[in-house]
UniProtKB/TrEMBL annotation:
Keywords: ATP-binding, Nucleotide-binding, Transport. It comes from Ureibacillus terrenus. Pfam families: ABC_tran. Residues 2-241 form the ABC transporter domain. One of its GO terms (molecular function) is ATP binding. InterPro entries: AAA+_ATPase, ABC_transporter-like_ATP-bd, Metal_Ion_Import_ABC, P-loop_NTPase. This is ABC transporter ATP-binding protein.
Length: 256
């Protein structure tokens, strides 16, 4: 699904990503964990072809960057970020925003077919936002907006779905509800490969079989989440001693 070989990105004299080797295989879902400025968003921008490596090789969905049509490839990648949340139009209805996902457009300018509307409604139902169909996007809560973005992304049947810090701005209940939804989504047969970026260890759900720990633009460690998210590794990774507790198949940390 994704292959990075010795990928380095340098911009304005700064090494943003350094010698990244990383493979994401089919049927894996990955969490990417790192502190502020560790390079998470830059890594996502490389996957989507918005940031071109200074050296190294990137393949996404079997297509090698430099030899492929990136806008075409992007149609297979759903990308949910706070910047997208801000770009959508407040006065558009939830239904039209979800439908616009089929065309990857901000706003709905294309004619839609009956089957598209049916699919949008099915997705909204799965996400528990069907009652908001006619609501204006701008009046929704952050949690509701996040679900609208996911339904919109799924309308395009992406093969990879990237979630960049999707729990930002959610209260503690909305966050847990959202995470429950992600765990359920991951169990569905149609679920794309998930790449979930976060600062918070406890958001690494059981469905994220693998985790990449990114530190100062470098891969600090990567592998099975259940093997990586241990006291010693996390203490060294964060540069502070942490204690770890397992609850509901998730790892919760406290700084000592
Ligand atoms: N075009 C650029 N020129 C110079 N430095 C850059 C550029 N783009 C990003 N950086 C730097 O690269 C580092 C990594 O940035 P990035 O946004 O990828 O980190 P992040 O892990 O997503 O951070 P956060 O968790 O705070 O969102 C930061 O120090 C940032 O200032």
């Amino acid at each position: 699904m994704i292959r990075f070989e010795n990928v380095t990105v340098i911009r304005n004299g700064k090494t943003i990503l350094k010698e990244i080797d990383w493979n994401v295989n089919k049927n894996e879902h990955w969490a990417i964990l790192g502190l502020n400025g560790s390079g998470k968003t830059s890594l996502l921008n490389v996957i989507c072809g918005y940031l071109y490596p200074t050296s190294g090789k990137v393949q996404v969905l079997g297509q090698e960057f430099g030899k492929t049509n990136i806008p075409e490839l992007r149609k297979d990648i759903g990308f949910i970020s706070s910047s997208l949340k801000g770009q959508l139009k407040n006065f558009d209805t939830v239904l039209s925003i979800v439908l616009s996902g089929k065309f990857a457009s901000i706003g709905l300018y294309e004619a839609v077919e009956k089957k598209d509307v049916q699919e949008a409604r099915r997705l909204m139902e799965q996400l528990g936002i069907e009652h908001l169909e006619d609501s204006a996007y701008g009046v929704l809560s952050e949690g509701e907006k996040q679900r609208v973005l996911i339904a919109r992304a799924l309308m395009a049947h992406p093969k990879i779905l990237i979630l960049d810090e999707p729990c930002n701005g959610l209260d503690v209940i909305a966050r847990e509800e959202f995470l429950e939804f992600i765990e359920k989504l991951a169990q569905q047969e149609f679920c794309p490969t998930l790449i979930y970026v976060t600062h918070h260890v406890e958001e690494v759900l059981p469905c994220f079989s693998h985790t990449l720990l990114l530190k100062d633009g470098e891969v600090y460690a990567q592998g099975f989440s259940r093997e990586l998210l241990k006291e010693n590794t996390l203490s060294e990774f964060f540069g502070r001693e942490v204690t770890v507790q397992e609850q509901q198949n998730r790892t919760w940390i406290a700084i000592k």
